[in-house]
């Protein structure tokens, strides 16, 4: 991912209000979004094929969602959220949670039905 | 609650579930392309808007990564020149505006300031209308064609209250688990769940188009009587001046490029320690002065 901090060790590198490179910030957010969508669909398929129902499925969704976020944070951002997106941890974790949940449910239902009911 | 699942006919899967999936995806794509076709032609921008956008775009490279490809001397000269450039453009825009106002006072023509605004509102509504119409049509069609059988089981349990909504065409089955759903509920599930899917497939529009959309929003949202055009353009000129001030403030005093000493950073240990002295004939940088060659002269 492209870093958005200024490359100079000036006094305004860690200025919270100033983003040095707006286009890379937007690119990073789009990228994270894409990764999340694909992984949510995949985890829906996984949950459906494994035959999880009810609460187990919800737990599976949360675990997989969190692990995807942590992996992005660790491997792509080198554990520095500030340098890559100007988001707080909370908003990073819960961005587009509703849409992810719905698409997870869709593919979960679909694959559960395809495998177990037909 | 029995843990046994009802086994459904595989014909339902072949002829209903998968076609429904294909229909929903196709409908979504259709909606996107219809939206593109129904979009209004882009208007020509006013001269002042053109100037402001172009100058901001040209000078924004200093902030967004010019340190990666320009050397320090070039950066310094641009750092001095760009704020001046922006201020010159702002002055030009102001004089242009004054001249236009003088012209308007001299020949009072019909005011065409009211024309753009109602049309702008209509175009926003058109997109919404397409989506709504399509939703209604699809719901009716699906209810007509795919009614009367169970389609899928949602993997979580629902309360009895949802029974009426999710099991539409099946009045006789009062004891059936609420989890077994009919086609309408699958339609809703698809509608919401495929939004994320469409974002992947179709992709968000490129950043340029997004920015132009934002500009249109800004231009469309300045209606009103009095002097609408003047306020809009004044705001743009102000933005130019602000941008010039921003550049002056934000760029650090020692504006060093990332390319300084890049050879030393790249080669690290292998950077040659001794300076090679070049003789007159050394155009290939080989040392021909010094050691005598063993060739026969």
From TrEMBL, chain A:
Superkingdom in the source lineage: Eukaryota
- List GO BP terms, alphabetically: autophagosome assembly; protein folding in endoplasmic reticulum
Which residue spans traverse the membrane? 61-79, 100-117
The subcellular localization recorded is:
Endoplasmic reticulum membrane
User: Is the Cell cycle keyword given for this protein?
Assistant: no
Sorted alphabetically, the keyword list is:
Endoplasmic reticulum, Membrane, Transmembrane, Transmembrane helix
| Primary location class | endoplasmic reticulum
GO terms for CC? EMC complex
UniProt membrane topology term = Multi-pass membrane protein
Family designation:
Belongs to the EMC6 family.
Record's protein name: ER membrane protein complex subunit 6
**Organism, scientific name:** Fragilariopsis cylindrus CCMP1102
TrEMBL record, chain B:
**What membrane topology is annotated for this entry?**
Multi-pass membrane protein
Quote the subcellular location field of this record.
Membrane
For this entry, list what GO says about its biological process: protein folding in endoplasmic reticulum
- SMART domains with a match to the protein in the record: DUF106
Q: Provide the alphabetized UniProt keywords.
A: Membrane, Transmembrane, Transmembrane helix
One Pfam family for this entry, by name? EMC3_TMCO1
Entry annotated with the keyword Transmembrane:
yes
User: Which family is this sequence assigned to?
Assistant: Belongs to the EMC3 family.
- Report the protein name in the record: ER membrane protein complex subunit 3
Species of origin reads Fragilariopsis cylindrus CCMP1102
Give the source lineage, highest ranks first: Eukaryota, Sar, Stramenopiles, Ochrophyta, Bacillariophyta
